[in-house]
């Protein structure tokens, strides 16, 4: 049993261009002769190059893109490149945007572009110096390519492996020269992903697949109401079940440990648990919305002010609207889980997380251990989407495992996963604008909702403004002479809120792009023309709008109740415009017919990955727009699994075209962008098809069918 | 003891008859390629083949599987012609993102291809609608099935 584990501590999947799951590799002192110029690069005597990934792979393709950047400046032989997960260390692998080890906000490439290039170039310079010294020639007369250093004048060459030991003794140059964009041979190429070979044959290991020797399996249930506590548990039936080993009762969590997950789950179902639901016991969605709407009447902290917005609102034709966004669960395909082994003097954790060092620190805190006593084994993630920016699953699992003698795998059922998420906040966005001579003259925009950053990263929350909460709103791409953007913090209390793919912009882009559409119609202008007329200050977005319109056949006739809608956004450093074509039937049911996106994301490190991220992100966002809503009744989340928290399926997904706009600008992020682009384009298409404006997500089919007022 | 034939090998399992195949594979046999996603036959992550049919192993009690039945999992599907072609097309077109749903997608797609060598869009919808991909790889899944079938 569990024989699979012993073979897999160091598992090489496939040949060249491989994923090396070297959990311990970066921690251990490298073998003698290995060149370790920095935290990211290891070159062994046999010439193999191991790149240590400061960001985590959750499907977005970053292991490949990061490797392309490092290997480009290093002039590595791509076929000899393997990648390894980084160990927890803010010092070595902290994200330059946050100073801690975190993967999110579509900033892996944006944040690491410069440091990775420098790391690669430094290593290359050291290898060249080492060769020059050996040949007793000037380093400037040598060049590197594909894992070798050449001295063309004498026809000599040496491989990186042969130079590794000597390179380690060289003094690194302060500012190694970086390549010109035109000289890139790896960056900009649609290279094959390094993480996929094991994902098509079952050999890949996610956190949920870890099987340390002797592992037992736990099924867990958390207080159905946040803040509730266990009063008592009758475990007599569960304990009598064959295969059930132990029942663990903590103050807010109950778990059953068994020989496998199924028996643990059966044992859990056989428990009789009495909960004290605590202070949230009576709160329902209507209360949350009443509070949010009331709070949105208040003046907020001003995130941006230009001209005199109040005066300008009185000068021209005025339009007012409010948009509302529901709670959303992440529903990563891999449910929450964590394997923990608590021993006499420490602890080991097997997990796939977006926050390695935070998992280590929080588990250490929960177990009252020094951080270095907590060993964290990172895995690939079966989806992140912001859910795995939280360490809760590791902390809960560690608290349970503390009561258990063996290693313990704790798996959340899908029901527990959906009901104990850290939800995308509810938001209400109140917008007013005035039109003068067909152009926007005044604009006020007030976001009311959670300040996720204030909880998750307090140093970034300054002056009552959540910079993520107003992202893509404070820096609106349209030329508007008088504007004010405000943020009102309102925490729902009944559930914890967190980051969700698209983060702040997925709220703001929906509200702004829907309202821009309303203004275009009010001004009697075509929505594309109206946007273009306001985009002189953002030419990259203007070009994207024009390309999306052209490629989508904007303006061409469509059947009745079928229409196109457009959105435009500057978010995460990328400039994107999207056209959704949709059809509405008489019952209000919506069919997606076609999606076209035009994307300027600067230098496209791996163009195919960018296209994939847009395709997937669009589906992610449109899934939410069409179906996504978490509701609360008596403190409890009402949804539980995919039958009542629906996902788009293959038969509901139309062709998606993504057009990349060539660019030599600093690379932007793309993982989040599709999620923000789809919903407003859909809403605008539905308006064009029916004349009905939906200002709330998810879309209400009864309103589209005319059975309910908008 | 329950005896099952998995990827051509006979396996002995000391579990109760009502134990779903999914957990017998993952937790007892250590064959973790087959994934848990929902537990209620809604997502397809746990798809395996029983005598060539795609089935959801999270709802299939081991006691309901006949001793003569042949179970194929993601670890063994590459040994079949349809499975090998699907895996190759998946990599050629870079279908995979996080990959967590892909064992199930590949098991459903190879069952489709084996039964319907020239699937059209409707066949693909019918065979694949039970498999959720949260990363949204559907556009490429469709293309890859067609490529594997040689109809693209
Ligand atoms: S886990 Fe079996 S269908 Fe979802
Ligand atoms: S590839 Fe991530 S769920 Fe399908």
UniProtKB/TrEMBL annotation, chain A:
InterPro entries: Ald_Oxase/Xan_DH_a/b, AldOxase/xan_DH_MoCoBD1, AldOxase/xan_DH_MoCoBD2, AldOxase/xan_DH_Mopterin-bd_sf, N-heterocyclic_Hydroxylase, OxRdtase_Mopterin-bd_su_IorB, TAT_signal. Residues 201-279 form the Aldehyde oxidase/xanthine dehydrogenase a/b hammerhead domain. Keywords: Signal. Gene3D superfamilies: Aldehyde oxidase/xanthine dehydrogenase, a/b hammerhead (3.90.1170.50), Aldehyde oxidase/xanthine dehydrogenase, molybdopterin binding domain (3.30.365.10). The keyword Signal applies. SUPFAM superfamilies: Molybdenum cofactor-binding domain. Pfam families: MoCoBD_1 (PF02738), MoCoBD_2 (PF20256). Residues 1-30 form the signal peptide. This is Molybdopterin-dependent oxidoreductase. It comes from Dongia sedimenti.
TrEMBL record, chain B:
Residues 1-77 form the 2Fe-2S ferredoxin-type domain. Pfam families: Fer2 (PF00111), Fer2_2 (PF01799). Keywords: 2Fe-2S, Iron, Iron-sulfur, Metal-binding, Oxidoreductase. SUPFAM superfamilies: 2Fe-2S ferredoxin-like, CO dehydrogenase ISP C-domain like. The keyword Cytoplasm does not apply. The keyword Iron-sulfur applies. This is (2Fe-2S)-binding protein. The lineage of its organism: Bacteria, Pseudomonadati, Pseudomonadota, Alphaproteobacteria, Rhodospirillales.
